[in-house]
Amino acid sequence: MKNFMGKDFLLSSETAKELYEVAEKMPIVDFHCHLNPKEILENKRYKNITEMWLGHDHYKWRAMRSNGIDEKYITGDASDYEKFVMWAKTVDNAIGNPLYHWTHLELKRFFGIEETLSEDTAKEIWDKCNEKIASGEMDVMNLINKANVEYIATTDDPIDTLEYHIELRKKDLNFVVAPTFRPDNIIKIRKDGFIEYIGNLGEASKSKIENLNDLLGAIENRLLFFKDNGSLISDHGLERVMYRECSKEECERIFKKALNNEEITLEEEEKYFTYIMTYLGKLYHENGFAMQLHIGPLRNNNKRMFKVLGADCGFDSINDHVVAEPLSYLLNAMDEENKLPKTVLYCLNPKDNEVIGTMLGNFQGGGDISKIQFGSGWWFNDQKDGMERQMMALSQLGLISKFIGMLTDSRSFLSYTRHEYFRRILCEFLGNIVENGEYPKNNKKLKEIVENICYYNSKKYFDI
Predict the structure, then answer these.
(1) CA distance linking residue 231 with residue 238, whole number of Å
(2) Contact 348, 355 (CB under 8 A)
(3) Sign of CA dihedral 233, 397, 400, 428
(4) Which pLDDT does position 56 carry in this prediction?
(5) What pLDDT was estimated at residue 55?
(6) Whole-number pLDDT of residue 3
(7) Over 80: is that where the pLDDT of 100 sits?
(8) Tens digit of each residue's pLDDT (9 = 90 or more) over 405-452
(9) CA dist., res. 162 & res. 453, Å (int)
(10) Going by C-beta distance under 8 Å and a sequence separation of 6 or more, which residues neighbour residue 154?
(11) pTM greater than 0.90 (yes/no)
(12) How buried is 257 (Cβ within 10 angstroms: 0-12 exposed, 13-18 middle, 19+ buried)?
């Protein structure tokens, strides 16, 4: 029996262990996260471990609710120490959950703490963590540098002023922080607040948006603003992929209906989505942006709690919409004019792994290496089984050697240990293939594959 989270954690073969020696040295390119650029610019110092760990982490909140913890100790007005103890009480019961691994990787790598967290050890670990935080070693810049991070792509709305990014670009840092263009609020025409948002978009682009041409002009204006300030990547959160052919005239009519606060039908929503997404994809291609599509969440399921806490508080789950046909049509609509951008496809529902794995091959080519990528296990899938299933589908249906690897998708600066978690799982996966006699033990080639997946592929793909 192996010791808990020892040197060879998740690594069972000699090949896997040799490959991890290569992987662990590679810098991190974090091409999708939800870190706050203001906190980076101001080099935020946290007051205690609860603020660092529990402030925005809906993964932990979900587990605490499952453990019967009252909301007072999760998002409520309990003291930070009480919240920490309740998290300790919960994580001790999280056997088999990636939260157990993430928690202890963060304690080991950032705080040097070997003890496991439980209700019994909570006070001791609380004191040790807070002592280190108080020392000044745990400010944001130190956390980023300690994790060997080279590039950070935050997630930003088109109306954002990017003021913090602008100031960060003036600083002599060991890493780059760049914005990502995320126009979900432009696309979601039936969402509450759409009219108000379009007004804000007009103000940001210094224009008045009264018709479709005005909207398209404002979108391009903001994309160019992002490009001028270092953005290389766009991102879309799609509860479902839609496709319904739509002329410009039809889209104009639908958009004006929305501006007049008239009800938009599901069919009209699909048409508007198709026209705007296709326009955006071509715009990305023309401006050298890569496009990320995060497909498949079912958001805000608990309406009672949504009214109390709002979005992104742990009440989302996996959706099960049909993906293949609308996704194929959407990508093809961009590709017909040879204006399909580099595209990373993520699926939240693992039933779609093979759909995505085969969709890639339909639109590869043009001299780009794996232009269409299968994104790493995301959200509910960024755990051992989810990552392995994604790697299996990609290796069997595409070229895992050209995979752009892992991202944090996190709001926490401690989450960079997820790259270690991914790299261990990757090395175990590749090591097993070799140990089973399915690929020769060519150490030079294997090490090159690992280095590329962990670092070089993403740098080349995003032109960093």
Answers:
(1) 21
(2) no
(3) positive
(4) 83
(5) 86
(6) 85
(7) yes
(8) 999 999 999 999 999 999 999 999 999 999 999 999 988 999 999 999
(9) 30
(10) 33, 34, 35, 36, 37, 165, 177, 178, 179, 180
(11) yes
(12) middle
Residue 366: Cβ within 10 Å count: 10
Decide: 153 and 30 in contact? Cβ < 8 Å.
yes
pLDDT reported for residue 265: 97
Kindly report the three-state secondary structure assignment for every residue of 224-285: HHHHHCCCCEEEEEECCCCCCCCCHHHHHHHHHHHHCCCCCCHHHHHHHHHHHHHHHHHHHH
| Count of C-beta atoms within a 10 Å radius of residue 121 | 15
For residue 432 the two structure tokens come to 């097993």
Q: Determine contact, residues 354/340, Cβ cutoff 8 Å.
A: no
Q: What is the pLDDT of residues 290-343, one digit of tens each?
A: 999 999 999 999 999 999 999 999 999 999 999 999 999 999 999 999 999 999
Q: Residue 377 and residue 400: Cα distance in Å, rounded?
A: 13
How far, in Å, CA of 95 to CA of 371, rounded?
Answer: 38
Nearest CA to 315 out of 303, 323, 325 is that of: 303
Locate all alpha helices (DSSP H) within 135-247, ordered by sequence: 140-146, 163-169, 184-187, 194-204, 212-228
Residue 1 pLDDT exceeds 90:
no
Burial (0-12, 13-18, 19+ Cβ within 10 Å), 214: middle
Can you tell me the distance from the alpha carbon of 236 to that of 254, in angstroms, rounded to the nearest whole number?
A: 21
Is residue 372 classed as helix, strand or coil in its secondary structure? strand
Which two tokens mark 181?
């263009």
DSSP 72: G
Q: Which of 315, 316, 454 is nearest to 376 (CA)?
A: 454
pLDDT confidence of residue 366: 85
Q: What are phi and psi of 149, to 5 degrees?
A: -90, 130
| Torsion-angle region of 241 (φ positive above 0: left; ψ -120 to 50: alpha; else: beta) | beta
- Assess whether pLDDT exceeds 90 at residue 174: yes
How many distinct helices (H) and strands (E) make up the chain? 21, 10
For residues 402 and 454, the answer to whether their CB atoms sit within 8 Å is: no
Cα angle, residue 49 at apex, residues 48 and 55 outer, rounded to 5°: 95
Q: Is the pLDDT of residue 457 over 90?
A: yes
Angle at 403 between CA 316 and CA 453, to 5 degrees: 105
Per DSSP (E only), the strands in 12-117 are: 28-30
